[in-house]
Specification:
about 210 residues; globular; six-stranded mixed beta sheet; alpha/beta; binds zinc ion
């Protein structure tokens, strides 16, 4: 499995492209491209690697993770958008989120498939399991690939930090509960690809993250 990380928009959000060597299918996790040059960078990468995205997997639908959704829907008409049902509220209030942060954006496409705890989703030859981790956002999820020891944590867990819980759909106690019961119980050698900042591991966060008591 190959993971390509892009850092997009003024929130420095990580957008990931996940695919197999030699394959054409890919998933885009949290499409945050906002500026035209970011859209070009993403399309150029997909073209150069002969990739056609079949799915967008949202960890959650805060605006910084969804800026690129309309653009991608235009480029790839058969693209499906996966997110937890409780994230539809963040799609519906996207324009309001934009006003709060002083940026303009159109409402992203509706969610095509609601993901749920324990569901498995194929990307190329690998499968990812959905882990519900509410707290940063009401319908926040992480995507875990056991074979590849890989977790996409969105804004639930960061290297040395955790997500905010004061935004749309946030709840601090739920966030800590999610991290402790759902993420800190994963194997130590799992690499965590976060919604912002650099990747980390479960072991590093278990032992060195000051926000996890
Ligand atoms: Zn967020
Ligand atoms: Zn974010």
């Amino acid at each position: 499995m190959i993971i390509k990380r892009f850092t997009f928009n003024f929130f420095q959000e990580n957008t990931y492209v996940v695919y197999d060597e030699g394959g054409t299918d890919c998933a885009i996790i949290d499409p945050g491209c906002y500026f035209p040059e970011e859209e070009r960078t993403l399309i150029q990468f997909l073209t150069n690697n002969h990739l056609i995205p079949s799915k967008v997997l949202y960890t959650h639908c805060h605006l910084d993770h969804a800026f690129g959704a309309n653009f991608l829907a235009g480029e790839f008409p058969s693209l499906k958008f996966y997110a937890h049902e409780k994230e539809q509220a963040n799609i519906n209030n996207a324009e309001e989120q934009g006003r709060l942060f002083g940026v303009s954006l159109q409402k992203p496409p509706s969610i095509s498939h609601y993901v749920f705890e324990g569901e498995t989703i194929a990307i190329g030859d690998n499968s990812f399991t959905v882990i519900e981790t509410p707290g940063h956002s009401a319908g926040g999820v992480c995507y875990f690939c056991k074979n590849e020891k890989t977790l996409f944590s969105g804004d639930t867990l960061f290297a040395g930090s955790i997500g905010r819980s004061d935004l749309f759909g946030g709840n601090g106690q739920m966030l800590l509960d999610s991290i402790r019961t759902k993420l800190m119980t994963l194997p130590d050698d799992v690499t965590v690809y976060t919604g912002h900042g650099y990747p980390t591991t479960i072991a590093e966060e278990k032992h060195g993250n000051p926000f996890i008591p």
